[in-house]
Amino acid sequence: MNHRQRILAALNGQPVDRLPWVPRLDLWYNANHYRGTLPGEWADASLPEIIADLGVGRHEVIPDFLDTEHPDEVADRALGIEHCRNQPYRLRFRRTERIVERSGDELRVTYHTPVGEVSAKLLYTEQMRRDGVTLVHQAERPIKSPDDYDTIGFIFEDIEVIADGGRYSEINDEVGESGIAVAYANVAASPVHHLLKELVPYDQFYYDLHDRPEVILRTAERMAGHFDAVVDACAGSDAEVVLFGANYDVSLTTPRIFEEPIAPTLTRAADRLHAAGKPLATHTDGENDGLLHFYGQCGVDVADSVCPAPMTRLPLAEYRRHFGTCPAIWGGVCSVSVLDDSMSDEEFEAHLDDVIGAVGDGRGMIFSIADTTPPDASLARIRRIGERLGEFRLA
Description:
alpha/beta; six-stranded parallel sheet; 14 helices; globular
């Protein structure tokens, strides 16, 4: 089996010839390429060339958020929307005017609409470049007062979603048999989740949810059409797997928040994608204690970026006990484990014993470093993970 076949078999709960090993290396590569610290034999190599040399699968779940066709499109991170290659659709404002002002590492973006304007500040700093980050930081969010909700509602109603698989097909062809180019639908799993995660400061969101819930719900209703449209575009594309929703953590997306305003939209997206023959992946890289049962209930097929103990409370065995083979798990190895100054060699080997010992017959398991491989990761440890997985005897 090749890497693509192993990934597809694993996420469908089918047997594989060996455990899939698909470490996310994009931030590691970006950082070391920028710093000029790539290992000597790879000083002039591309990331796909390094992946091929390591003999690992190509991780194309989270996109390069800076890879836009127009520089100003990066500024729409202020709205929590992207314009990256992994999207089999394009986004266009019909009546909203976007104004971007740049000053050093700062972007100030203002959206003018017939009902008002909102603005936000984004940062892309030297430290972020040195760390390989491509997701610019929201230093100031667009919703600052109750009046801004109406403007955000207008903007999301104003965005036209145009199905267009051109750029996605390019990256899909590039990946080929080395992995799966996962289509990117949306960073949040529902309009309310999007407000919490992207548009409103966390504390203000919860105050507003308590003091003026009707404003939150009315805005979410106006945003719902956008969510349906991007899922429809992904469902109609050539994508084999679609990512919808990311970054759940029980401290922010509490069970109540997950059950009421997130689960119905996540379920509807899963149903729409399943009707088109496509599995849904969602990015579960936070503290999931108390949330695990929701993923299966909502029809999630792949829990991407599962980060177990010791970085979170739950060991991988607990995920496997809850999920079985569905949702499939993509992740399972803590990012700190590949840092020499965070785990000793003995602790590293013990961590591998724990996570490999949790996989049972290996079905429904795609190993990766969760959330991502840090810039200062030990290549010897990355290779060692591959060796240990290769030694595992499937039932």
